[in-house]
Amino acid sequence: MDASVKGPATGKRAGNGPLITGSGAASIGIASGVAAVSGYGVLVIVAHVLSPARNADFLVYWSLLFALIGVYGGLQQEATRAVATAEMLPAVPLAPRRRSPILLWSLVVAAALTVLALAASPWWRSSVLVGSAPLAVLLLCGGGMVYSGHLTVVGIMSGRRQWSATAVLIGAESLLRLVIVGAAALAGVGLGGFEAAATASTALWLLMPLVSPTLRSAIRAPADAPPAQVVRRSLQAMLAALGSSALVVGFPTLLRLSSTTAEWATAAPLVLAISVTRAPLLIPLNAFQGVAIGYFLDPRRGRAAAMVRVIGGIVGVGVIGAVLAALVGPPLMGLFFGPAYRVSGVVLGALTLAAVALAVLTMTGAGVLSLAHHRAYAAGWLVAMAVSLGLVFAPMSLSARAILALAAGPVAGIAVHAFALRGTARAAGGSGGRSAA
Questions:
Q1: Which are the contacts of 132, defined by CB distance < 8 A and separation ≥ 6?
Q2: Which residue, of 83, 190, 299, 377, is most buried by count of CB atoms within 10 Å of its CB?
Q3: Which residues contact 53 (CB under 8 A, 6 or more apart)?
Q4: Are 72 and 241 in contact (CB under 8 A)?
């Protein structure tokens, strides 16, 4: 392991240092690239081993797994915000009642939700995991709960600006998933084997503290508030993440619920196209989300100006990506996944533009969360999810309703976040004016 990961966490406060160094940005960028390539690799491997119909079932499991991980992503965001905020404050000894580790309470919340999900599984398994064995429910819920610890540790290290260790953990977990899925393919497993292989790497974070003092320090990081407040804020962040995960990675599950059996049997090319067109934007953004929250919190730059710069870059890259997807996407889909997975250029370009809207929503959400406006943050994502959920059942073709739902939902969520940010700016301006007077 890299020496920078082995180095012990220092007791110095990071609040006055640079937000992220060039080497830190490079390491996070490399890790996000590894995650993107690994995710693509898994989809390619499974598509070449399973039939399109069975692959559609795997894609539902894959979607559900990462949707659940996305919900637990609220724990990562809250850990980042809490630690970054604490780093900017003067060093004040915490009272004993506040010294419970953030990781402990994250796992408590995740365990409680896992119990609820397992108890409710008889009602949702038969309509979602149609082609999977009952064991898939245990894999799904257990893997998600274990991964909640991974996300919390990543959030803590992001808040502390320990970018090298963060990058190693992100990249290693993604790469391990690809290796295990590849080994499963060589072993000739079926759908259940691939589901287990895709889930196994979620436990990597439990082993890495054995060789990394930085990770050992992170798992002991204390909360910045009493336990009740930690749990309440975590649940609010996870409520927002529910909307986020439903749109970012859980959308194939929504499509499955709105499709007939015959329609879903031919849906694998479209579902793969949705994943392929959004991964180049959303995987790096998710990896850099901790950086973004800290960036918007940095008092040395205006929050509005910082957000305009970030969103402008996302839109510029996304428009170029949409043009490229329309022009070269169809032959590339056939090349990597096989002739049965060709999708028209118009659909690929439209899906890429919808991914741009989702990426912008991700950044406006980071801006709202940096202000600790958990309710507005959650409202934006839940409105986006509600709009998309309504449109996914529209009486249209599968591809038409997918594009419409993926584009309109994020736009509605952006409007909610923009309203909250505008209200905050007005309040700050009025306060400043009164102070000046």
A1: 57, 60, 61, 125, 191, 192, 195
A2: 377
A3: 265, 268
A4: yes
Q: How far is CA 125 from CA 42, 110, 130, 138, 245, in A?
A: 23, 20, 7, 11, 19
Q: Using the Cα atoms of residue 300, residue 29, residue 328 and residue 267 in order, give the sign of their dihedral.
A: negative
Q: What is the DSSP string of 50-86?
A: S-HHHHHHHHHHHHHHHHHHHHHHHHHHHHHHHHHHH
Which residues are CB-neighbours of 81 under 8 A, at least 6 positions away?
159, 293, 369, 370, 372
Q: State the greatest distance between any 2 C-alpha atoms of the chain, in Å, as a whole number.
A: 75
**What ranges do the domains of the chain cover?**
20-424
> 54-68: buried (b, 16+ CB within 10 Å) or exposed (e) per residue?
bbbbbbbbbbbbbbb
d(CA 145, CA 345): 38
* CB hemisphere CA count around 418 (13 angstroms): 10
Side-chain-facing half-sphere of 262: CA atoms under 13 Å: 0
Up-side HSE of residue 21: CA atoms within 13 Å toward CB?
Answer: 10
C-alpha 160/C-alpha 218 separation (Å) is 9
Whole-angstrom distance, CA of residue 256 vs CA of residue 241: 21
262 touches 78 (CB < 8 A): no
